[in-house]
Amino acid sequence: MTTFVFGDKEIAAQPGQSVGAALIAAGYRSWRTTRHGGAPRGVFCGIGVCFDCLVVVNGRPNQRACLTEVYDGDEVRPQEGTGHDS
Amino acid sequence: MLVIGAGIVGAACAYYCAQAGLRVGVVERGAVAGGTTSAGEGNILVSDKAPGPELDLALLSAGLWAELGERFGDRIELHHKGGVVVARTPDAAAGLDTLIGRQRACGIDVTRVGAAGLAELEPRLTRDVACGAYYPQDMQVQPMLAAAELLRRSGATVHTGTEVVGFRLRGGAVTGVRTSSGVLDARWVINAAGTWGGEVAALAGAPVPVLPRRGFILVTEPLPPVIRHKVYTADYVANVASDDAGLETSLVVEGTRAGTVLIGASRERVGFDRTMSLPVLRKLAAQAVGLFPFLAEVSVLRSYVGFRPYCPDHLPVIGPDPRAPGLVHACGHEGAGIGLAAATGHLIAQTLTGATPELDLRPFRPDRFEAVA
What we know:
The structure holds 2 protein chains of 2 kinds. By secondary structure, chain A is mainly beta. Chain A is built from 1 helix and 8 strands, in the order E-E-H-E-E-E-E-E-E. Chain B is built from 10 helices and 19 strands. Chains A and B meet through loops of A and loops of B.
């Protein structure tokens, strides 16, 4: 079993699962807010095209949750705005 | 009058002609701004031009764009951001110094800056530079928004998805066009078909040699504002003017209102081949990281490709065609079509209303290529 941290929660995932699939399986529907207006976003296209499901993985912002494979011990954080604003 | 092409040049022709009191229609094979207009960066540059007819056109256009910016405000995202040219070697610095001197004599506002000055203008720039130049007249615009706004303000009837398949001629004069969905008659027909302007001109029996020069642009993830100006390397000017058919890349980097950073610019003469080329994209990315080292940690979201319309002498084709009365050309602006669009539309409107054009159109005349042959 793979486990990763999302915010302050520990989440179980299947080996080989994407971050997005694991978050949806754990009951999350959104994990990002937009740059303009701060609206919530999660998986939209699910195939890497729309860049809606962006998330911070191990400190690196703008990772597409739908394409990023989750690994044991990963630290995943919700993303606000560009993810580059300190 | 009828404009063929709803890109930025066609839109500017429609706008200035409507302002001059003409009734305007526009016919477009695809969508508004669907060709080269949406495949560039929105450059309005005086900095990359050497003295000559194109610089005269660029200076006239810069003034007109500034007016359009005041009139339309934020709707076209016109930004007086200024250009910064970077020379990274003593050779490039010497070339840049010569160019600056000649440009200044033509009325371009340019300041030479040393390495410290460059660091102040662009704090994230590599420190490995020789010198640079700052051009406050350079601007950026969102070209699709601008084309749409100019068309809207012109009040023109815009026929999108309508392809011109032939011309209507009477006694050798153009009286209209035949399209995929019927006939459109007009006193004047403007060929603003950009990279496809050569094909349109051939339909009227008045050929102009407009050919495609392919370019790729990389788009990064959105960032907070970090790159303040339009920044490019001094070899860009030499590449733009080059006649080499092979791949050339010279770096142009700028931020956009949306936060993405655009990285260009490659030049290849490979016809209308839209195939993505990983080696070209790699080269652009590597050069960008060389100029702005922090980009090494930034992701690229996507790339896009387009075709600059170039003529053998690198000048656009602007003005009435004596070989086909009624036909007026406004195409072949190579990679400067956004910047040169305003002046082109303005000069076409002056020509059609019988006013004396503000600039001598002879260097741009459509039949100049036959005279050479």
